[in-house]
Structure prediction request, 462 residues.
Amino acid sequence: MLASARPAVSLENLRAQFGGPINAPGDAGYDDARAAWNLIADQRPVFVAEPLSAADVACVIAFAREHGLRVAPQGTGHNAQARAGVDESILLNMRRMRGVEIDFEGRSARVEAGALCADLTGPASELGLAALAGSSPDVGLVGYTLGGGIGWLARAFGLCCNSVLSFDVVTGDGEQLHVDAEHHPELFWALRGGTGSPAVITHMELRLIAVPELVAGAMLWPWERASEVLHAWRAWTLDAPETATTSARILQVPPFPEIPEVVRGRQFVVIDGAVLGSEAYASEVLAPLRALAPEIDMFAASAPVALSHLHMDPEAPVPGIGDHALLREVTDETIDAMVAVAGHESASPLLAVELRHLGGALARSVDGAGARATIDAPYIYFSVGVPATPGLAAAIPARQAQLRGALAPWTSAGAYLNFAEEPTDVSTAYTPETFRTLQSVKATYDSRDTIHANHQVAPASE
Prediction:
């Protein structure tokens, strides 16, 4: 049977065993179920299965193996474009598995595969705890963690993937396993930052961080001051303590009615982030930035849940075209090059161009770390545009290519897969030895290459 064929009779058998909805082309729910958060992705899978349990996931994988299909897991589809289509795959939409259980005494949380960052960060914050979650509240926790996970506490505590305590998975070979440092340790290592190629995660257990004092927010200046502010931020990062994790952006705020009027439709240079510690301590840390007299200053004592919203990422599906690169350094010349391509005199079509400060704990490997142990580069840049018109759909990639070229003298080799929104040579994200080991783990647990991950690792050949 061809992989693209629709096995109708067998599909009915699967429906009889499966706990959640299954939507095939022509079904009323198919278009909604196949959609990705990034609306650019036009996914047309063989069918969409929405599991309610690990047993449902195992049913779909067994079906796929029987019929020569692949299984493409999806939490939210923020990064769906990286997969380059699912025409010969079953889309496994995990959106009905969003359960979260917090163990306050044990400082940990167990989450289901479809849980969003906001599903955990809100309840944890009420207990004074934080996960090492990212800047968007509606990113899926599992997908974010499989790629590494850079959050607003990253310079102090490192990558989210290395805060994972265990996974429950269904492997590409159809086995249901509990995976941790003592059980299937090679798979535990691979899933922490090494993509989800060998298995579908059904549950994940994360360590939580006690955060008794935290200051978070953003400072905004008119974008005409981008050069001045970005130069000052760059100099400040050279000695910034590891308690502070920040980014600096040139941001063109869309004129959407749900955006507060004070910033709606305006252009800014923005510094946002978080400082672990008291308000008095944070005031000392942030003093050189406040000396620039921001038009808006929203840094204040905050509960950990504020970290999910301070970056002002959109909280509903939108189309987006992103690009990124790791930077081995940011100099005054780097800032000049960035402003020339994306600043107020550039007629840039980009919604945002961001520099994020890394280093600190992100650069230090810890015992027992996963496949993505560190990010060696001290900075990363990311740019994004919203292709609301055909003209923008052409102009955005062209400007991103121009920006990438302008920043090339400072670009480091490699990739950070959570920011790689197009098909990417996954091997460039890892050392050659790490990538070979990931391929070996893939071959052990998914010998037929059934799992169609966003960022794919092919099984090692004999």
Notes: The first helix runs from residue 8 to 17. The first strand starts at residue 22 and ends at 23. The domain at 8-93 is CATH 3.30.43.10 (Uridine Diphospho-n-acetylenolpyruvylglucosamine Reductase; domain 2).
